[in-house]
Amino acid sequence: MQGWCGIMGGMKKFAEKYRYSMILLRELVKTEFKLKYQNSVLGYLWSILKPLCVFAVMYVVFAHIFDIGRDVEHFPVFLLMGIMLWNFFTETVSNGLMSVVSRADLMRKISFPRYVIILASGFQASITMLFSLVILIILAIVTGVEWSWTALLLPVFILKLFVLANACSFIFAVLYVKTRDMKYVWEVIQQVMFYATPIVYPIGMVAAQWPNVARLLMLNPAAEAIQGARWAVVTREAQMMTHLTDRWWLVVLPWVIVMVAVWVAYKLYKRYAPEFAEKA
After folding, report:
1. Distance in angstroms (rounded) separating the CA atoms of residues 63 and 239
2. What is the mean pLDDT of residues 149-156?
3. 127 — alpha (psi -120 to 50), left (phi > 0) or beta?
4. Can you say how many angstroms the Cα of residue 224 is from the centroid of all Cα atoms in its chain?
5. Residue 82: which pLDDT band, with cuts at 50, 70 and 90?
6. How many CB atoms lie within 10 A of CB 90?
7. Alpha carbons 38 and 43: distance in angstroms, whole number
8. Residue ranges per domain, the chain?
């Protein structure tokens, strides 16, 4: 009983300590999401239409022209999930990168925790991702995807991608305050990562010819999270690191990379956050 009371007391203190930050975070997320589609004729529908348009083009090009994914079960859902999660990752990092500089005037006028600005970008991208997730579920039902208990693991893989994306967001946001070159560096990294991540092609196709290359690609935590989500919801043919190797340290390494990214983000933010208002 005393232990339970202690936990409840700790949660209450935590809620009181970060109450102002949570309120500010909520308002920033709402504001950014509204501003994103302000003066747009279709408005919030773009959050659904954008991934669908990309999916349609890629499906025609890769599935029908290059004949990729022919042997993948429920390839349309497989492809849409990859695009949806990839857009979530890149949108979080891209918005986070610009967040501190774009809110520089606000920081000079009001004193508040700076991390809220960066986190707001990640949560705003999460709203867009949830809209896309509804379309994904509808497509999965229409195409006859068989649901099982593994679908309950989907939030775990999305959470992993969320943590990684926000860690990268913090890192790039801090570095962008220091030098505007980081915007162009991120654009290059984004392009390289897109083709190095099994989004439009199954990793099994790579593993069949170059198993070591496939393992190298799957060290990317984003790739591991996307493949894990596909495995949980779409098809058991979606291979993760556990399917490519029996070396435990290779299986654990993507999770270690996520933790290292979080640690680096924390250190950079703690070191340079006091300078944001002055240098942004």
Report:
1. 19
2. 92
3. alpha
4. 12
5. very high
6. 19
7. 7
8. 25-279
Full 3-state SS string of 210-237: CHHHHHHHCCCHHHHHHHHHHHHHCCCC
Cβ pair 128, 203 in contact under 8 A? no
Kind and range of the H or E run holding 126: helix 115-142
Round to the nearest angstrom and report the end-to-end CA distance of the chain: 50
Q: Give 200-247 pLDDT, tens digit per residue.
A: 889 988 998 999 999 999 999 999 999 999 999 998 888 999 999 989
Q: What is the band of 85 on the pLDDT scale with cuts at 50, 70, 90?
A: very high
Q: Which two tokens stand for residue 276?
A: 């944001």
CA pair distance 85, 23, nearest whole angstrom: 27
Residues ≥6 apart with Cβ < 8 Å to 275: 177
DSSP per position, 131-180: HHHHHHHHHHHHTTPPP-GGGGGHHHHHHHHHHHHHHHHHHHHHHHHH-T
The residue type of 51 is P
Query: d(Cα 139, Cα 133) in Å, to the nearest integer?
Result: 10
